[in-house]
Design brief:
The chain is an alpha+beta fold. It has two helices and nine strands, in the order ββββαβββββα. It has one domain. Strand 5 and strand 6 form a beta hairpin.
Length: 136
């Protein structure tokens, strides 16, 4: 960024705290209803089983941050996993995706959700939703 003849780097950008690391991660996106149920399941589990989670208000989805490389083997129906191709994300107080907010912000959660644990939670969430819907 250039202002008044000065060049500043991203590290000196006041909107990005220098203590905020750039990390590589992939993002698993699911419908909000299933994602919220999965967050509940993960938070009831042992330890800190859930990492940062984004909520896309307009699209009705949740995005779980998972370790890099997860996208290559992700095959859970009803969800998508997008890789960052080594670009990494800056986990700052502001969400890295425009039009979204943190449901679980960095600092209040692990750096990423374990993909195997997330896979199980999403499956349990889908079964729970299916059972609830069949009772109507």
């Amino acid at each position: 960024m250039v202002e008044a003849g000065m060049t500043t780097s991203r590290i000196n950008d006041p909107r990005t705290p220098p203590s905020t690391p750039a990390v590589g991660c992939d993002v698993v996106t699911v419908p909000a209803r299933q994602g919220l149920e999965a967050v509940d399941i993960l938070r009831r589990g042992p330890g800190d089983a859930v990492g940062p989670v984004l909520h896309d208000d307009g699209g009705g989805t949740l995005g779980f941050l998972v370790p890099p490389g997860t996208a290559a083997a992700w095959d859970v129906p009803g969800s998508t996993c997008t890789g960052t191709d080594g670009r990494g994300l800056t986990l700052a107080p502001r969400p890295p995706v425009e039009g979204s907010d943190w449901l679980l912000p960095p600092g209040e959660a692990d750096l990423a959700t374990d993909p195997a644990v997330l896979r199980r939670a999403l499956g349990e969430a889908a079964r729970t939703i299916e059972a609830a819907d069949s009772c109507r």
